[in-house]
Structures are given as structure tokens and as C-alpha cells.
Task: inverse folding
């Protein structure tokens, strides 16, 4: 059955995309290989970010600075992510998905090499900047690749597996990063990232095909109109920001940036672990702090898998209930448990436990809260990201990228502010404020689910 919507017709892009033949260009084994490759690239991206956090005290000591200053370098990393997303994402829609990976991965492993040899904070910032530019588009373009090769009713599950695979990094990266920082050096962590990035780049060169639907790339359209030669086209990096004028993109960005791991979860929970959970329970080495990241990462994986399957179930049931007519907002129902209950409640519970419950009981319960926080984050992330590529399939990379850019800009501010806020007001005030922001995001989710068809019509997507 063709992929239909009352307000958005994906079938206008080409004759081929009027049938599901466009999704049968690749065999199931080829789809699994493609998914594995882009998930591996995404895993390295997340590993680059996650392995840094438990090393902050060791890096600060080695470079003769403070944890707060290193926290500022994380904020700079996020700003570089914004720049990379704005510059790189338009090219994924214009030249295709494969070229973005061929450029991004070398930047990532070169940046890691610079970090490994950094002798001061300035060199560290430069290296992390290259890493951020390399990492910036990997996840956004990966989500578009999934939408290129999987049908609507398979897409949520596939996206769930994609995020579950890359979210192996959050539990493993801090654990391995902390262990290496304790028993070798934080520089070895960066060297490992560089090696992984290079190996992944080699496999991408050999095995990753172009997945964009035939006739949909910008360069193909220009050449078909005989208005383009063979020169390189420079695209306006700010053009995709205009997508934020669309109420669907704006609402998803706002509601998704509050809980998303790299925007609130990492700055508010994971970054301060060395200075909150660590002192309270005697976790005084990067290796022990790294162990504390494991429950959150396992929650990430569980949340991604559960939400992906739930999203497809809601889509299928909604289509059946409407006699074949589908509404993309059905998918967002899978985000409700995470956004309304799991995430805000676990944030507040974690703060209260760290503040008032000492000993093994307090530590155990705090780690359980981290598991449910991770689950809540990715029960929101998966359905919202898939929803955006459902609604804006032909601009999937751009729309996910602009959402990520806005969220990372917000995350840069949160990262720079969280340690001073924890030091000034305490963990209870910090986490309660974050939980309140999450509950505000619930209003946006409700409006999108309830009035999504009207919002799309108002935005001219009829």
C-alpha cells in the first residue's frame, strides 16, 4: 500500500516514489548493513561526547585548570555542533547522504588526534571543535537514511533499533573512558576515538551506498532542468533555519530539546556526577564515576526499543481505525509516558536521594533513577525524530538537523550554567527546575497530538 497522508503527499517527488518500489531498491540484508554502518558512525559520535564527561576532573588536573573551565569547553563543543549542522545538513539533501559521511568522519578522527596531543585548554577546544564539526550531521543524516530505506509502517521500529544501537555508547563510553582515564590517560580515550573513526570511515567508503530517493536530490533537480553544470554549489547555511517558521518543526524542537540527552540530561545529570554523586557516595575516580553512567545508558537502549515499537503500533492502529488514512501525530503517543512521567519524576527523585539518602541504599536507588531518566529521554527522542522525517520526508536531514541545531544551542548554555547552578543553589533546585521545564514541554506535545492536522494545514502542508 502506498504511503498516504491527508495533508502531506510524499508521492510527488518522482514517478518511482509513487510505489513502494523505492523502498525495495535494497534487499533486507543490505538494509541491515546500511543501518549497521550509520549506527556505528552514530555510536562513535556519542562515544566522543560520552567518554569526555567522567574525564573532566582528570583533564582539568592535567591541563592545570578547573572543572568549570572544562565545562565551558563542552559548551564550545555544542556551539561547534550547531555550526556543523547548519553548514552540513543542507548538503545532505542537495548532494546526498553518502558525501556527508565521507567528510564528517575524517573531521571527527582528526579532531580526536588533536585532543590526544593537547597541551592546554586552547588546543583542547580546537580539537573538540573538529570533533563537533565531524559529529554534527551524523545522527541527523542517519535518521534520514532510515526514512530513505524503510516503509512508513516499518520506520519506527527501524529507527528504534538505530537509536538503540548508537545508544550503546552512553553506558559504554563513560565506563571505558573513566577506566582508561584512571589506569592509563584521558589522552588514550581520544586516541581510541580517532582509531574507531578512521576504521568506520574505511567501511563507509567501501560499503555505504547513496540512499536518497532517485530524483529527489537538489543537484539532480537542477541538472534535470538543465540549469547546472558540473561545478560545486555553495549553499546558504542559514537557509534551513527558515524551517523553524513551520509550527510543526518549532513545537517539536521546543518539546524535544528539554528532555534530549545532549541538551538537558547530560548537562544537568551526567556532567555534574563527579561533583554530586561522587562525593556523596565516595566515588572518587573516573573509573567509578564511569560505572555510574551504565544504568542511564541501559535505560537509553530500553527506551529507544520500547518507543520505536510503540510508535509503529500506534501508527498501524490509527490507520486501521480510519480505514487506511494515517495521521503522523499518532506516532507521538509513544512519547507520552517518557515526557509526562519517567523523565521529570526520576529527575526530582534522583536529586532528593543524592541530597538525603546516604550509603549503599541511596547509591542503588540513585542508579535506578538514572536508568528511568535515560529511558524517559529516549522514549521522547525516537518518536519525535521519526515524526519529523514522516512529515518532512523530502527534507528529512534538514528538518532533523535544524531541530538539533536549536537544541544544541540551548544545550551549550545549559552546559556552561549547570555546574555554577549546582554549586550556588544545590542539586534539588537544579533538577526541580529542569523537571518543571519538562512538564511545560508536555503542553506542546498535547497541542501537537490534538491539533496536528490543523497546524499542518495552517502551515500550508495540505
Result:
Amino acid at each position: 500500500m502506498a504511503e498516504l497522508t491527508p495533508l502531506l503527499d510524499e508521492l510527488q517527488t518522482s514517478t518511482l516514489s509513487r510505489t513502494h518500489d523505492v523502498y525495495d531498491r535494497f534487499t533486507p540484508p543490505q538494509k541491515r548493513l546500511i543501518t549497521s554502518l550509520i549506527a556505528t558512525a552514530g555510536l562513535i559520535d556519542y562515544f566522543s561526547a560520552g567518554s569526555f564527561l567522567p574525564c573532566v576532573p582528570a583533564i582539568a588536573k592535567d591541563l592545570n585548570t578547573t572543572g568549570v573551565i572544562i565545562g565551558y569547553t563542552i559548551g564550545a563543543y555544542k556551539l561547534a555542533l550547531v555550526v556543523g549542522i547548519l553548514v552540513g545538513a543542507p548538503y545532505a539533501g542537495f548532494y546526498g547522504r553518502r558525501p556527508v559521511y565521507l567528510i564528517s568522519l575524517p573531521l571527527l578522527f582528526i579532531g580526536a588526534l588533536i585532543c590526544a596531543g593537547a597541551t592546554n585548554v586552547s588546543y583542547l577546544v580546537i580539537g573538540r571543535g573538529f570533533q563537533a564539526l565531524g559529529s554534527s550531521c551524523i545522527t541527523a543524516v542517519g535518521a534520514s537514511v532510515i526514512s530513505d530505506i524503510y516503509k512508513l509502517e516499518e520506520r519506527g521500529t527501524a529507527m528504534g533499533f538505530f537509536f538503540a544501537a548508537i545508544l550503546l555508547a552512553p553506558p559504554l563510553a563513560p565506563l571505558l573512558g573513566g577506566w582508561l582515564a584512571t589506569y592509563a590517560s584521558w589522552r588514550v580515550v581520544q586516541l581510541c576515538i580517532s582509531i574507531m573513526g578512521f576504521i568506520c570511515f574505511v567501511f563507509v567508503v567501501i560499503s555505504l551506498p547513496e540512499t536518497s530517493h532517485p530524483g529527489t536530490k537538489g543537484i539532480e533537480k537542477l541538472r534535470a532542468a538543465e540549469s547546472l553544470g558540473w561545478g560545486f554549489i555553495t549553499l546558504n547555511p542559514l537557509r534551513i533555519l527558515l524551517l523553524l517558521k513551520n509550527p510543526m518543526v518549532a513545537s517539536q524542537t521546543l518539546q524535544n530539546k528539554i528532555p534530549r540527552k545532549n541538551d538537558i540530561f547530560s548537562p544537568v545529570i551526567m556532567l555534574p556526577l563527579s561533583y554530586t554523586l561522587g562525593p556523596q557516595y565516595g566515588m572518587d575516580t573516573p573509573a567509578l564515576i564511569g560505572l555510574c553512567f551504565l544504568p542511564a545508558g541501559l535505560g537509553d537502549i530500553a527506551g529507544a526499543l520500547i518507543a520505536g515499537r510503540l510508535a509503529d503500533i500506534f501508527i498501524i492502529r490509527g490507520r486501521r481505525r480510519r480505514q487506511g488514512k494515517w495521521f503522523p501525530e499518532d506516532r507521538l503517543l509513544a512519547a507520552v509516558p517518557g515526557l509526562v512521567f519517567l523523565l521529570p519524576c526520576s529527575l526530582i527523585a534522583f536529586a532528593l536521594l543524592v541530597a538525603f539518602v546516604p550509603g549503599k541504599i541511596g547509591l542503588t536507588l540513585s542508579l535506578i533513577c538514572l536508568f528511568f531518566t535515560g529511558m524517559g529521554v529516549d522514549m521522547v527522542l525516537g518518536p519525535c525524530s521519526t515524526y519529523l522525517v514522516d512529515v518532512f520526508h523530502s527534507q528529512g536531514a534538514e528538518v532533523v538537523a535544524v531541530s538539533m541545531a536549536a537544541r544544541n544551542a540551548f544545550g551549550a548554555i545549559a552546559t556552561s550554567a549547570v555546574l555554577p547552578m549546582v554549586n550556588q543553589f544545590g542539586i534539588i533546585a537544579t533538577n526541580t527546575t529542569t523537571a518543571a521545564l519538562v512538564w511545560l514541554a508536555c503542553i506542546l506535545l498535547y497541542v501537537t497530538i490534538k491539533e496536528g492536522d490543523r497546524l499542518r494545514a495552517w502551515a500550508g502542508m495540505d
Residues 344 and 435 are 4 Å apart (CA to CA).
